[in-house]
Write a structure and sequence with these properties.
It contains four helices and seven strands, in the order E-H-H-E-E-E-E-E-E-H-H. It is of the alpha+beta class. The protein has a single domain, classed as START domain (Alpha-D-Glucose-1,6-Bisphosphate, Chain A, domain 4), CATH 3.30.530. The chain has a seven-stranded antiparallel sheet. The longest helix is centred in the last third of the chain and has 21 residues.
C-alpha cells in the first residue's frame, strides 16, 4: 500500500500537532514503537487498542483495532513503516481496511533539548477532501487525547 497524494498543496491537507515531554528522546521513542506501550496510549481515551500487531522495522507492517466503551470493535487499520531513525524519526503510512486509495502519511519527529523532547506529529492526508473528512470527525481531538495518555506512559518510563 502506498501513499498517493493528490496535486493539491500539502499545507492544505496536513495536520501538525506538537507536544513537549519531560523525558529523553530515547524514552519517548520506546513509547512510540513498542506494542506494550502503544496499547496504553494510542487512540482517544475510552477507545483502547485491542489489536496491536507491530513489526517495527523499515518495510514492516502494523495493524491496530480499537474497541469503544460500548464494546463495539472499530474498523481495523494499519500500514507500513517507511523510515525509522532511533530516537529521532518514525514515518509510516496509515489507513483503514480494506486498503483504499485514501491513505495518510504520518511523520513523528523527535527533538531533544536539555532532557526534554518535542514531538512533532505530522499527518499528511492524500487529499484536501480526506483532510476535511477526518478533521470534521475529530481526528485532531483524538490524536491529542492519545498524546495526553502518552504523557503518562512517558513519565512512568522516565522514572525507570
Amino acid at each position: 500500500m502506498n501513499f498517493q497524494p493528490t496535486d493539491e498543496p500539502a499545507e492544505r491537507r496536513t495536520l501538525v500537532i506538537t507536544r513537549t515531554f519531560d523525558a529523553a528522546a530515547s524514552v519517548l521513542f520506546q513509547a512510540l514503537s513498542r506494542p506494550e506501550h502503544l496499547k496504553r496510549w494510542f487512540g482517544p481515551v475510552g477507545y483502547p487498542l485491542t489489536l496491536c500487531e507491530v513489526d517495527f522495522r523499515v518495510g514492516g507492517r502494523f495493524r491496530f483495532q480499537m474497541t469503544g466503551p460500548d464494546g463495539v470493535k472499530g474498523t481495523p487499520f494499519g500500514g507500513e513503516y517507511w523510515e525509522i531513525v532511533p530516537d529521532r524519526r518514525i514515518v509510516y503510512d496509515n489507513g483503514f481496511e480494506p486498503p483504499g486509495p485514501w491513505r495518510m502519511l504520518v511523520t513523528l519527529s523527535l527533538a531533544e533539548r536539555d532532557g526534554r523532547t518535542t514531538l512533532t506529529h505530522r499527518t499528511e492526508f492524500a487529499s484536501v477532501a480526506m483532510f476535511e473528512d477526518h478533521t470534521g470527525v475529530g481526528i485532531e481531538a483524538g490524536i491529542n487525547s492519545g498524546l495526553d495518555q502518552l504523557e503518562d506512559v512517558v513519565a512512568e518510563l522516565a522514572k525507570g
